[in-house]
Amino acid sequence: MNKTKLLLATCFLLAFSLQAQIKDPVATEVWKPVPRVVSPGSASNTAPSDAIMLFDGKNTSEWTHGDGSDVKWEMGDGFMTVVKGAGGIKTKRNFGDCQLHIEWRTPAKVMKEGQGRGNSGIFLQSRYELQVLDSYENTTYSNGQAGSIYKQSIPLVNACRAPGEWQTYDIIYTAPRFNEDGVKVASARITVLHNGVLIQNNTEIKGTTEYIGLPKNNKHGKAPLMLQDHSDPVSYRNIWIREL
Ligand code: MG
After folding, report:
1. End-to-end CA distance of the chain, in Å?
2. Which of 5, 9, 164, 227 lies 20 to 30 Å (CA to CA) from residue 138?
């Protein structure tokens, strides 16, 4: 075995044993540093002419639950709200590279702390979570707060509005690339503005979002956008997407 092969084999074994050792969700939490707080300004959020309107506040026909059933989330006046246990929802269409605008609101009444406070999430290609959380004066692990790529990338700053206020994410997303053998040749990339403030700047997504353990990188193509039911009544409105 030459030196390069030996090095590769060692790396593989190390990665394999590291994955096998991680059994505890706490093992992948990062608590420091804590992003500084920035107060966002106001922004214009109207869909441009070439966008696909995924949710206009009334019509959920672009969405379905995992089993293909109609959306059972609660419809409000111009928004929809997660119903605990109803499950996440996903778009009927598949998406890859895109520009996505989405507005969300965590409950005004603060019941819990940490990850239990207004938790939901936006899963790009059903795999990569941009965290939705009430991170306004709410301590949790930094790589799990609002605007984090969950357990992968801490947001540059904390631009969260107060609980009960509407917030925006503007996302520019480039899907990962795989070769014919299923080897990832380019990671997904994501840029995110939270309430108009840059929080992820062309961030590399290392692989799938995992609650326990390390990201995975299995070959996939275009896939639905998914919104998470994490048991908290988080609301969504004005969701539009531009395919890139
Ligand atoms: Mg979440």
Report:
1. 45
2. 227
The rounded Å distance from CA 121 to ligand 1 centre is 4
Taking only the tens place, the pLDDT of each residue in 84-96 is: 999 999 999 999 9
Please say whether the beta carbons of 88 and 227 come within 8 A.
yes
Residue 95: exposure state from Cβ atoms within 10 A (0-12, 13-18, ≥19) = buried
DSSP state of 69: P
Only one residue has tokens 């990832």, namely 184
Tell me the per-residue pLDDT of 167-185, one tens digit each, with 9 for 90 and over.
999 999 999 999 999 999 9
Contact between 211 and 25 under an 8 Å Cβ cutoff? The reply is yes
Structural domains in the chain? 3-243 (2.60.120.560)
130 burial class (0-12, 13-18, 19+ CB within 10 angstroms)? buried
- Ligand 1 centre distance from Cα of residue 150 (Å): 8
- The alpha carbon of 113 and the centre of ligand 1 are apart by a number of angstroms equal to 14
Q: How far, in Å, is the centroid of ligand 1 from the Cα of 228? A: 6
Extended beta strands in the chain, E state = 52-55, 63-65, 74-75, 80-81, 89-91, 98-105, 120-124, 128-132, 167-174, 177-178, 184-186, 188-194, 197-205, 226-227, 235-243
